[in-house]
Amino acid sequence: MKRYTIAAAALTAAASTATAGGLDRSYTAIDALFETGNYAEVSLGFTSPDVTGSDLGFPGLFAPNAISNVADSYFTAGAALKIDFNEKLSMALIYDQPYGADTLYGGNPGTTLLGGTKAEVDSHGLTALVRLQVADRWSVYGGPRFVNAEGEITLSGRAYGLASGSNFRFASTTGTGYVVGGAYEVPEIALRASLTYHSPVDLSMSTTESIGGGPAVATTTSTKTPESWELAVQSGINQNTLVFGSVRYAKWDSFTLTPPTFGTNLASLDDVTTWELGVARRFSDKFSGSIAVSYEDTSGDDLVSPLGPTNGQTGITVGGKYAINDQLDLSGGVRYTMLGNGIPQTANTARGSFRDNNAISVGMKLGYSF
C-alpha cells in the first residue's frame, strides 16, 4: 500500500489550485512528512484562469461595460526534503508559494467603474517540521513556518470616487508562525488520519502610499496571514485501490490590509472551507492514477472584493504517477475548476457581475527516495 499512499497525495497536489478562496494557492501541504525513509521532491504547477464579467455602469453617465479577463496566468513551485533520524524521529523542510494574486482590470478609469484596478501579491513559505512517533500508530508533529510576502495594489475607476488612482506598494517582509498536528496510521491498510493547524503569521510591511494619485508617503502596514485547520483521511479498500478525502478551513475574514494613511481595509475576504474526495488505483507495478473532486465554499453573500471577483469553486483533478525505478517517481495532473459567481463591490455597493468562469491547471512532481 505504500506506493498508493504516495500516489494519492502527489497527484492531488500536482495540479496547483486555481484562484482559490482568499489568496490561497498551495494550501501548504505536508504530505512529504509521511513518506517512508529519506525522500526529496520538486514540483511545478501552471494555472490559466478565465475570469470575465461586466460592470454595472452608472445611470445617466455611462452604460455597462464588458470586463475582459482580469486574472493573469501564473506558475507555482514547491520542494520538500524529509529525513529519518531513527524509527521514531524524523523531520521535513517544505518550500511553497502559499499566497498570491495577479488581477488587472482593463478599461478607461474615467468611463468604467473599475478600469485600471490591479493587485499583485507574491509570497514564499518555508516550513520546518519534526515528527515524533509517540505510540505504535500515533505521531505528533510541529515546527516553525516562515512566510515572506510583497505586493502592490491600485484602486482605479469611478467606483472609487476621489480615491481613484490610489497606489499602495508593500515591500518584501518575512514573518514567523508555527504548524502543529497529529496523525493516526495503520500501515497494513494504508490508513492515515491527520489533523493539522497553521497559525497566523504576523507581517509588518514597509508601505508606500499614494492617495488619489497624490504624493507618496512612507508608512508601515501591519497584517497577518489567516490561521487554518485541515483534516485529511485516506485508506486502502483493497490491494490496488485507495480512497482519500480532506476538509480545510481558512479564517480569511480576520485578514486585513489597511495602510495607515488611507485608513481603509483593501482586502475584505470571507472565510473559506475546502472539501476534497478522491480515489487512486494501481494499474501496474509502475503506473497508478487518481481522480479527485473538490468543492470550496465561502461564508457571507456573493459580494466580493474587486481584487478577487469569484466566490467559491468546484474542481476535478485527474492525475497519474509513473515509477521510473525503485527510487525515482514522476507524477502529473490536470485540474479543471469552475469558479463561483461573484459580485465585485466597493463601499458595500455592487459594481459588476462575474459569472460562468473557469481555470485550467497542470502540474508535475518529481520524487526521489534515498
Q: Main traits of this protein?
A:
370 residues; mainly beta; Porin; 14-stranded antiparallel barrel; 1 helix; 23 strands; globular
What can you tell me about this protein's structure?
The protein has 370 residues and is mainly β. It has a single domain (2-369), classed as Outer membrane protein transport protein (OMPP1/FadL/TodX) (Porin), CATH 2.40.160.60. Helices cover 4% and strands 57% of the residues. The protein is built from one helix and 23 strands. The strands form three sheets. The chain has a 14-stranded antiparallel beta barrel. It has a three-stranded antiparallel β-sheet with strand order 3-2-22, with no helix packed on it. A three-stranded mixed β-sheet has the order 17-20-21, with no helix packed on it. Strand 20 (343-346) and strand 21 (349-350) form a beta hairpin. The protein is globular, with a radius of gyration of 22 Å. The two termini are 19 Å apart. Mean pLDDT is 91; it is low at 1-18.
Question: Summary?
Answer:
The protein is mostly beta strands and 370 residues long. The protein is 4% helix and 57% strand. The strands form 3 sheets. A 14-stranded antiparallel barrel has the order 1-4-5-7-8-9-10-13-14-15-16-18-19-23.
